[in-house]
Amino acid sequence: MAEHSLILIIVIPLMASCFNILLGLFRRGFCYPLVIATLSLCVILSIFIMDGVINNGVIHYRLGGWAPPWGIEYVVDHLNAFVMTIISFISLFVAVYSKRSVEAELPGRTVYFYTVFLLLVTGLLGITVTGDVFNLYVFLEITSLAGYALIAIGRDKALLASFNYLIMGTIGACFYLLGVGYLYIATGSLNMADLGRLLPDLYHSKVVLVAFAFFAVGVAIKMALFPLHVWLPDAYTYAPSTVSALAASTMTKVGVYVMIRIMFTVFKPNFSAEMLPVTEILGWVASGAMIFGCILAIAQTDVKRMLSYILIAEVGYIVIGVSVTNRMGFTGALLHILFDAFMMACLFMVAGVVMHKTGKTSIHGFRQLHRRMPITMAAFTIAALSVIGVPPTAGFFSKWYLVLGAIYARKWIFAGMLLLSSLLAVVAFFRVIENIYFAPSCHAHDRVGQEGIVRDEAPLSMLVPLLTMAAGILILGFFSGKIVSAVIQFTVPEGF
Amino acid sequence: MDFIISKFNYWIYIVLMMIGFYAMISKSNLVKKLVGMNIFQTAIILFFISIGSKKGATIPIIQDSHVDAVNSALYMNPLPHVLMLTAIVVMVSTFGVAVALLIMIYRKYKTLEEDEILQILRNEKWPNTH
Amino acid sequence: MINRFENIIIQTISRLLIPPIQLYALYVIAHGHYSPGGGFQGGCILGASFILMVIAYDIKETKRMISEKINTIFISLGVIIYSGIGAVCLILGADYLDYGILNKIFSVSPAKARALGTFGVEIGVGITVMAVMVSIFLNLVSGGEHEEAQE
Predict the structure, then answer these.
(1) pTM as predicted
(2) Which residue range is the domain that position A293 belongs to?
(3) Looking at the domain that runs over B2-53+73-125, which CATH code has it been given?
(4) Is C55 on the interface with A (CB under 8 A)?
(5) Do C144 and B88 lie within an 8 Å CB cutoff?
């Protein structure tokens, strides 16, 4: 039973998405409980799998009974289980949050929304579970197509933003497919572990070098790494609030997971460090991402757009951790995947609450909002402090590992850029926080009296996931030592 | 010369891919971008299929259903064919989503030229300037 | 958006051709597991037959044949058939999509059970692909307006 949970975690959301359409034709009110039940089952299964991996080691599952490399194999090791657990948790909380938001923003389309939402979660979980490069392409495209459809139903510029995302995302996926094809020409195998065994003899062949180049560019487009990030701000700003919250916290993180798999499981680490100067290029590109993301975040007037640029900077942090190729940096990168998912989910959920209550997400619209929604704004402040890296929030712990990793690798410039981007993030977030708490109110009806402002807190179904994310940010930081020793230290590739 | 003639299938498909890529980048009409994307993906699919061919091999379908063993050197590699069936499905789905998006863009902005749409958006954002 | 295009030639030929097209599509689906063909190809041809009906006649006539609600049910039915066959293999004790275990239900040899399992999966895929093709075409042609608003 424990091994079958590897396939059940994909089949259950897929079948639930189909049953959702059938149930939705029958009665609309059944969709939300079905989604919550499905995602809770996925969370339980992923905890099961994580438990199995910690106690027993790597889990293998053969689809159809065919042995690899002739069949598709699902392999879960510590890295897989870690990312899978994060995705299933965040999906559950965003789904709980989504009830009020979807009813308000997309009236009459809740059935179709939840169907495509479940397909998106299927794709995300499928990317993390599979051990076959072509199967990963299929799940990547499932995720992307569901993402294009969900982003396109947002407000004003969403259609054009989704079309741009479609064109760029398809280019990325096609490059990934070309990489898979070149590797197949060179080795004749599509299984990740088998490729890892066959490729080291072929590192000098040009086919393999070009395959790596295609993989790198394709995955970089999907995870919005610095020069190829252009689709992200428009797409996540104009998407519906639920979609922004889910996509920002999970879709870029699975992109980073795919990059880590390609670089360290399919191609061994010495390829990236010695054959091609990949890690140096990644380091410089990621530093550009951090600085550029934070500087442009300061320039925005819309909170969701600012958060999208902060997301670009966060992807830069994770890639810097991967590029310094030592144990500290890699640990910091994986911890940052976990904490960043929580932070981004919390921040975008707050933006969604403000959109739900006031109808706009400009920074000016946050003025004195702490009188109306003190708890929500407190969660925003906690998440903002975590992005900046203030102890005792979780962001401090992962940034500590990242800076230490950069220093151990003697890359002083990257460590300096990490600290500089934290300072720039301070400026970006304190513009909003100052508006929330300290700006003098300028509306006439506020001067009538302090009791003129009514406490209009977020509805409970939106508040509970928000507070869970914020509590996670506060508490998980102290558990980071335990997380590292139980899970992350086994994910570091050998040779680091 | 032999370098080009012996690998002619790769050359043809790379040229097709670049035509599609050029159309995606340089054309300003959204439908033309989409057609370019379709050409690009089709060229990738054809490229994959061409790598399965062997000299003097026939199509990978076993004629007689009662054979015990097959001499695999006589048949083409069927795996790229099967993988590309999946890729074709992905291509059609992407095309379907993209055309649906284009129809809604047309209904909203009444044009499908990218520069005209950007002009409309600029006028919406700053209605007082031209 | 599409008005009725009264042309006796097109209507007669379509009326003659649509049933053979559908029969051919079913043959293509049924041959999928041991010769060229398969679920996706046959499903596309089935969908093309309905699209021919829309082109030759009218959307309303076609919606009398296959309504939007039935179409939506077909989309999910095909995927449920596919996952359901895999789940049946799981329940009987083997890995997912390991059709060899189906010989306990059908009492044939495991190799024959694998062929039957693949055939069942192809049927599911064909139904879904047909429904999706028809649905895409109807949505695009009507410009997104449905007569029955979902509420």
Answers:
(1) 0.94
(2) 279-496
(3) 1.10.287.3510
(4) no
(5) no
